[in-house]
Specification:
By secondary structure, this protein is α/β, with parallel strands linked by helices. Strands 1, 2, 3, 4, 5, 6, 7, 8 and 9 form a 9-stranded mixed β-sheet that branches. Strand 7 and strand 8 form a beta hairpin.
């Protein structure tokens, strides 16, 4: 073999060896983790049918941002296989915390009910006659049976802003079967449960608004002082 051919052969061999070494090292490197999938809650538009226009004497409602119970103020999607133990899907998340996603849905659902002159969220220049406070008690995918199901519990408190008196308080609990035994199936079920809770919450607020009677703030203070 002449020197030129020998050099070419040695060069090709070295290149093949380097390529094999690089491939071997790549095989030993850890694989990057899969990118998470992100999901949202929706469904306020179907909470109620077309609403009547409220009269000018109807109350104004201030809807405060929902709070969340311990363990549920996270973007992680929770599932339960045994009581009292919360677990999380590894590669699936909410686009935001459920409580923050619920905020505009609650506002829209109650507004659709048509029982209030205005439905506003703070900060707002409008003075509210009533105040709605909500707490997300739980939102979890439960694998205790077949099919699995999602449970959503929302606690609502309606307060008279003038007298500070609680007019109504109720827990809304909805369950929906998951169409598949995975995170996406739970998301679909969570949206069905959300729509059910929004419908019930809107009716709850409508009924309270119909029972509400305007109070004179000055008279209320005088009555309190005379006791």
């Amino acid at each position: 073999m002449n020197p030129a051919s020998r050099a070419r052969s040695l060069g090709a061999g070295a290149a093949a060896l380097a390529l094999a070494f690089t491939a071997g090292c790549s095989a030993l490197l850890p694989k990057p983790p899969p990118q998470p999938s992100f999901y949202a809650l929706d469904g306020a538009a179907s909470a109620l049918r077309a609403a009547p226009i409220a009269s000018m004497t109807a109350p104004t409602l201030v809807v405060n941002a929902p709070q969340a119970a311990a363990g549920f103020n996270s973007q992680r999607i929770i599932y339960v296989r045994q009581a009292h133990q919360l677990e999380y899907f590894a590669h699936s998340e909410w686009v935001d915390t459920p409580a923050r996603m619920l905020a505009p849905l609650i506002l829209a659902a109650v507004d659709q009910g048509g029982a209030f002159r205005a439905v506003v969220a703070p900060p707002s220049a409008a003075a509210g006659d009533l105040r709605l406070d909500t707490e997300l008690v739980r939102l979890q995918h439960e694998f205790g049976g077949a099919p699995s199901r999602v449970r959503l519990t929302l606690r609502a408190t309606l307060t008279d802003s003038v007298t500070r008196r609680v007019l109504a308080r109720q827990d809304f609990d909805a369950m929906a079967d998951a169409p598949s035994e995975d995170a996406y199936g739970g998301v679909v079920a969570a949206n069905h449960a959300t729509q059910a809770v929004l419908r019930a919450l809107a009716l709850f607020c409508n009924e309270a608004a119909q029972r509400w009677q305007p109070q004179d703030a000055g008279a209320t203070k005088r009555a309190g002082a005379s006791r």
